[in-house]
Design goal:
The chain is mainly α. The protein has helices spanning 2-6, 14-28, 42-48, 51-54.
């Protein structure tokens, strides 16, 4: 969101290319799932990250703020 809007400002068009490159690298990772625009509660995250359910115990939350 923020980078998309700010990349339209004078002199900041390269930001969109950096964003696109980073998104591309993340999408290539087999062990990473991205859920953009998802509304989550603390309970959702705890349930989703339960070791016995998905085999991992880390959740990274990026707010874009």
């Amino acid at each position: 969101g923020r980078v998309t809007h700010e990349s339209h400002l004078p002199g900041l068009n390269a930001w969109a290319r950096v964003r696109d490159w980073r998104v591309g690298r993340i999408q290539e990772m087999a062990n990473v799932e991205v859920f953009p625009g998802s509304r989550l509660t603390a309970e959702d995250i705890l349930e989703f990250s339960a070791d016995d359910k998905f085999g991992f115990s880390h959740v990274f939350l990026a707010t874009g703020a």
